[in-house]
Amino acid sequence: MDKKEFDVFVIGSGVAGRLVAEKCAKQQLKVAIADNRAFGGTCANRGCDPKKVILGPTEVLELSKNLKGKGIVSLPTLNWKALQKFKRTFTEFIPKAVEDNLEELGIELYHQSPKFIDETTLTVEGKTVSAKKIVIATGNIPRKLDFKGNSLLKTSDDFLNLKKLPKHIIFIGTGYIAMEFAHMAARCGSKVTMLDHNATVLNQFDDDLVSELIDISKQLGIKFVFNAEVVKVKKLKKNFKVQYIKADKKIAIKAQMVINTSGRVPAIATLNLEKGNVAYTNAGISYNHFMQNPLNKNVYSCGDVSAHSKPLAPLSGMEANIVAENIINGNTKKIDTPLVPSVVFTLPNLASVGLNEEEAKKRYKNIIINYKSASDWYNAKRINTKAYAYKILMNKRTNEIVGAHLLGPQAAETINLFAMAISKKMTANDIKGLVFTYPSWCNDIKDML
């Protein structure tokens, strides 16, 4: 059988892989792309985009509850079935649209995950292909948990496609995805229990603001069980029984659904990377300054599967541009790791950028810590929310902002101003000297300094 040859073979059709393929094809390179799932990747099909659609009506409900009796007479009712139908208007067209666009550029499509045969050769769909450059952009997948009954667990994909919300849901794990889904489910009427082997949630975020978010979550009816080690999940007639050990005691709880939200890992297990001489770690595909693999110089990586920085869609696009540039023009462009803000889309949002308190204390001799609840400020009072707090960190010697941590209704937006301020080494006085719209959430950052 003849072996097909390409200039570039891309594995993964999400933000990163798709962008590399398109840019290379526009430069008249012979390009192929493969994906073992619907084309378009996680973010557009089953991740950040559909998640935000489902979040929308819960924001309306939250605001209505806060303002009931203050202009709002009766509360809206959430209809999960209608919400899912609305969500599909954002996702159903994605795979075909992506495939059509790629094919118009002359890119050959494969609908299976390839495996390396050697440094430049792959097998895919029963065919053997070779490529001068291979780009791994396979993203992340749910972490597999190792206990009896793990096959009974649902994943984030299942939650986002539920036709009906169960009366009681158990989430195993308390990271970004777990907390966001828990808030959605609780507001839509489900009883929610969260199990984690750690002593708290969201360990990447500020401890003080996380504690406040936990309290708010409990007020929603969300139950947290910390320091719990799940040992077994069993299918009953109507429910699932989850057994866990806490303080040397074996405890069991029941629910209609159990969801694995213990985190995500690089999707590399099926690629036969050893045969391709591709260096990798538990964090993902290894890389150098050019997003090139240190062992196999024919291989590049970008997006969530790369061990570079945080697994976020905007960063994936930036990495993809670097990879495409280096494939097209030779290794001329190095990756400059940017400052990356993070957000948990709970209600309220929890957002962070720059150094945390512990990191700031290690790096600087003296720091200023502005930590306060802002629930009595105008913007919080006008929508009657108590969930508004901040912690801003500054280098005392220079007055530069080095870290910002926000909890509030618009924290996901406001954190971007702090990201710009830290990137540009702005001081508190620099920010205070600017004019923002008033009264706005963004204008509040002056008072946080």
TrEMBL record:
The keyword Repeat does not apply. Disulfide bonds join C43-C48. One of its GO terms (molecular function) is oxidoreductase activity. Binds 1 FAD per subunit. Residues 340-446 form the Pyridine nucleotide-disulphide oxidoreductase dimerisation domain. Pfam families: Pyr_redox_2 (PF07992), Pyr_redox_dim (PF02852). Residues 6-310 form the FAD/NAD(P)-binding domain. InterPro entries: FAD/NAD-bd_sf, FAD/NAD-binding_dom, FAD/NAD-linked_Rdtase_dimer_sf, Pyr_nuc-diS_OxRdtase, Pyr_nucl-diS_OxRdtase_dimer. Its cofactor is FAD. The keyword NAD applies. NAD(+) binds at G173, T174, G175, Y176, I177, A178, M179, E180, G263. It comes from the Bacteria. FAD binds at K52, D304. Keywords: FAD, Flavoprotein, NAD, Nucleotide-binding. Belongs to the class-I pyridine nucleotide-disulfide oxidoreductase family. This is Glutathione reductase (NADPH). It comes from Jejuia pallidilutea.
